Amino acid sequence: MAHAEWTHIFHTEANNLLHGDTWHLEFNSSIEPEQPEYGWKEYIRNTSARFQCTQCRRSWPSNRVMVVFHMRLIHGKGTVKVRRFRQNCKMCTNAPMEDPSIISENITTLMKNLVKKIRIKCYNEDLEKGFHHPRRFDVKSPHEPEHCEACKKGICTRE
Ligand SMILES: [Zn+2]
Ligand SMILES: [Zn+2]
Fold first, then answer.
1. Residues 88-131: tens digit of each pLDDT
2. β partners of residue 80
3. Separation between Cα atoms, residue 61 and residue 104, nearest integer Å
4. Residue ranges per domain, the chain?
5. Which of 71, 85, 94, 121 could form a disulfide with 80 if both were Cys (CB 3.0 to 4.6 A apart)?
6. What PANTHER family does the record point to (predicted)?
7. Measured distance CA(75)–CA(131) in Å, rounded
8. From residue 135, how far is each of 13, 39, 105, 131 by CA, in Å?
9. Which ligand is in closest contact with the Cα of 58?
């Protein structure tokens, strides 16, 4: 369900900008940040999202939600692997890691940034730096590094 929405928004944002090549996007939770496989380019972006604990149903917002993209273009076929970094509940013991729930507006922002990055990294287009910012949430409690996958990997945004 999330995947269909991401794919739809990606193709909408990529429309006519990716040189007529065919691109597809897939979720892949096994790609490693800062270690793209040979021939793959990387893009790491922060977004805002909500999480919900599947054990106690508690939910919380976060402005430090990392998304890693690995992309490759070969013979007119492009692939983007997407990994969304998870968080888990600080109240439950042995709480499972949860995927972020990202609103359409923020997926759109991520896809605009991604398409621009693909144009720069895979097509060597000379575009200006800068990126679109996500809609941020009102987060009251401090970020919890021990409950954040990206912090454990050392790639979480610093504020
Ligand atoms: Zn919980
Ligand atoms: Zn973190």
1. 999 999 999 999 999 999 999 999 999 999 999 999 999 998 99
2. 25, 71
3. 15
4. 2-153
5. 71
6. RECEPTOR TRANSPORTING PROTEIN (PTHR14402), RECEPTOR-TRANSPORTING PROTEIN 4 (PTHR14402:SF8)
7. 28
8. 18, 33, 8, 13
9. 1
